[in-house]
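Handout for the seminar on molecular recognition.
Each group receives one record of this type.
Step one: identify the two inputs.
Step two: read the structure output and locate the region that could contact zinc ion.
Step three: write two sentences on what you found, then compare them with the reference statements printed after the record.
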Amino acid sequence: MTVLENLLSDIFEELADAEHPDVAPTDVPREPLPGYTGRLGAPRPAFYYPDAYTVDIAPGDQPGYFAPPKAARFDGGAFFAAGGHVYALTRAPGGDWQAAAVSGGLGAPQLGRTQADAIRAVWDLTESHFDVNAPFVEFRDARGLYGLPEKRAVVTCQGHTISLKRRHKVGHSPWVVPCGKCGGTGTLEHYRHVKGGVCFGCDGDGISMSYTLEDAVALVRTEARKERTDANKRALAAERERRRWLRFTQAHGQVARWIDFASSRGHQKAAKWRAAVLKGRELTADQVQAARDALGLERDEAEVAAYAEVERRAAVKRSRPAGVKGERVSVSGVVTVLRSYETGPHYRRRVGWRVVVQAPDGLSVIAFTTPAKVKGLAEGDAVTVVGTVKDPENRVIATGELQTVLRLESLSTAV
Ligand SMILES: [Zn+2]
């Protein structure tokens, strides 16, 4: 070999090294990491490392299984959350316990001999006892500041992510999260007049946090674990508040709806009352009276109209048909409308009467009848009407509430 050939071969080797600066992939151990066992007992790699960086799980980072929760007691019942959904525990017909989803969650109720058994059934079926997936580390070759090559790693675990940049500095953690304020440059151009533009987020380091890859992986996994528990806590807290507000609305109707409405509009006292109810406190009689007064004292016309709309919607929601078409029904309530009208052709005019009866639970019926049937009746009278349903889908035009049309059979004054 000539001197020239030797030289050329050296150069080629150097070039090849420059293209693959790290250890060749074949030299990198690729066995699954120790200490992790998949859900079926088979070993499964904790994460993959397609690049030359190996990651070890710290001995303390053994994956934990989530134990089923204890039932939380509120609103006269027992509840728990799994997979971010709330389940209610009730006695099943056979004397066992059953756990049924309040909203979302499993479609069928799960049975158990005890409450704990029913909880465990849901817990297992929703796979809540499994640990979160092992974090996945993806390596990328990128260009950094001034176009220099840069190693990056993205650690992901169930929606939780941390983006890292490789740092080559002896004696420092090898992976960093760039400072969010300066983007990793360490300077802020537009603050050049203050301390020469040194970033006040990172003091010029360009780094907000630094980790070993193991620490970053453990951190992301801890966040994912915590989020799963927190999602259940949040769901349970929301259900508790929903029930408290429902009870309050059942007790105070209009006042409750007004407090809800006004607090959403920035009424400070209303917001305070609402928060108190959600925390489970009873409003004093004075506070309820104050809310009632505030409701009456509302002077802003736009607010009055907006609140009337809230009331209207509540009424529409409450309204329901008296029965299916052709069904014979009996409705007890108060006569709210009693009006006569003229009908028939001009040569044979006759008088009819329109009667609206409103039951206390959002049921309203309307009937058209003869003068004889409404004789001696007045608006405000308590009556019981019996008739067959003619149109269950009729709505009051002005408000949109359901008002069943009845073919009247009898109308009797309640004793
Ligand atoms: Zn910075």
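Reference statements: The pocket of zinc ion is lined by residues 179, 181-182, 186, 199, 201-202, 206 (CB under 6 Å). Residues 213-252 form the longest helix (40 residues).
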